[in-house]
């Protein structure tokens, strides 16, 4: 980065043009990361959304043409609430939502028919629907949807939806279609966590590749780019952790998920470990900035980080495919053995400190690749 000197004390200051260029580079990296993550979310949600949309259209058609309702609003609403855009369509969960919608609509219709609409009617309808839902089942989704649909009922004129009874029929039709769709297209609870795991672990690999490039070039801008990339990966890592945790929890009550409980637990553990490794890599990127320059030989460190990135990419592919990452373990174990500050950066304590910082995320990634904590630590050369 181009620098100028302050006249008063000789402090090196960045040129205004260089500062603006760095800001533009930061914004470009952030935008690319968000676009990449957005495309990933669209790919994962594409077929679930198409399926839910078709089911909503079918429910509307049945309520309109079979039952003669002019505007069967609650039929497609019930389908969308039950199915949504996720592949995680456990029959119990869909059933809870369908019952919740029906309870809210039915009780809302009944109460509003006798007491009308208004601010206090909203309070009465909401309280009654939620309490009845809690009595029916312990599921939080059931009570939530019952309350939401009851509130909608108070403000939506019955004449537009086929009368009070018509709205309940519409909700039941939508719930039945949603249950049928969930039964006919059962989702694999491992699929979404695998996809997100592949993407999040690839984010770590690409951050490492940027970091290695910065070590080779000695350019502070390249190191800053690695730090920006690492920070921009946080949403992907958080989504993987949240999805893996949710899938693991659902596996306890789902017959489909129960047989995959071990892998789902392993995916949840991997998500935590990869996130931990990314945090350590971001620390390494920040600490590398003062060391960048011709006075320090960072090429051996770059070689180690390159190998680390290659092993992480292989790990990402294995996570996405649901396979044992044996090749990734081998590459990462070699990387761990090479991360020896006594030989890499000998005589330069600042370079040695970078090697020391590199050892921690390598151990975390080895654990994510299937090694036990003890095996991962033993893969490092003893100091």
From TrEMBL:
Pfam families: FUSC_2
Bilayer-crossing regions: 44-63, 69-87, 94-112
Domain Integral membrane bound transporter: 59-181
Key words, A-Z: Membrane, Transmembrane, Transmembrane helix
Location(s) in or outside the cell: Membrane
Topology in membrane: Multi-pass membrane protein
Protein name: Integral membrane bound transporter domain-containing protein
Native organism: Oerskovia enterophila
């Amino acid at each position: 980065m181009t620098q100028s000197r302050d006249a008063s004390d000789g402090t090196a200051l960045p040129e205004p043009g260089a500062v603006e260029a760095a800001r533009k580079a930061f914004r470009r990296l952030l935008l690319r990361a968000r676009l990449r993550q957005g495309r990933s979310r669209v790919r994962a949600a594409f077929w679930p959304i198409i399926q839910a949309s078709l089911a909503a259209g079918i429910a509307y058609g049945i309520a309109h043409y079979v039952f003669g309702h002019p505007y069967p609003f609650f039929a497609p609403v019930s389908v969308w609430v039950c199915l949504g855009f996720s592949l995680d369509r456990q029959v119990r969960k869909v059933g809870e939502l369908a019952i919740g919608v029906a309870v809210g609509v039915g009780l809302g219709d009944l109460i509003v028919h006798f007491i009308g609409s208004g601010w206090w009617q909203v309070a009465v309808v909401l309280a009654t629907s939620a309490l009845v839902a809690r009595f029916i089942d312990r599921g939080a989704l059931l009570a939530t949807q019952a309350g939401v649909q009851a509130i909608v009922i108070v403000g939506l004129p019955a004449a537009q939806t086929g009368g009070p009874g018509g709205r309940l029929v519409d909700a039941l039709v939508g719930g039945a279609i949603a249950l049928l769709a969930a039964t006919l297209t059962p989702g694999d609870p491992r699929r979404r966590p695998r996809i997100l795991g592949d993407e999040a672990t690839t984010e770590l690999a690409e951050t490492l590749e940027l970091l290695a490039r910065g070590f080779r070039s000695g350019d502070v801008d390249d190191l800053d780019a690695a730090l920006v990339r690492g920070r921009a990966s946080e949403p992907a890592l958080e989504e993987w952790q949240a999805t893996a945790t949710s899938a693991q929890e659902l596996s306890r009550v789902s017959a489909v998920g129960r047989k995959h409980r071990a892998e789902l637990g392993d995916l949840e553990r991997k998500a935590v470990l990869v996130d931990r490794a990314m945090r350590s890599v971001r620390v390494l990127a920040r600490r590398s900035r003062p060391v960048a320059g011709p006075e320090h030989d960072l090429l051996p460190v770059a070689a180690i980080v390159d190998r680390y990135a290659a092993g992480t990419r292989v790990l990402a592919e294995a996570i996405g495919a649901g396979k044992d990452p044996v090749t990734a373990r081998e590459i990462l174990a070699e990387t761990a053995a090479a991360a020896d500050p006594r030989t890499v950066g000998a005589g330069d304590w600042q370079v040695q400190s970078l090697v020391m910082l590199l050892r921690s995320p390598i151990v975390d990634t080895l654990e994510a690749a299937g090694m036990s904590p003890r095996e991962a630590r033993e893969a490092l050369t003893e100091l």
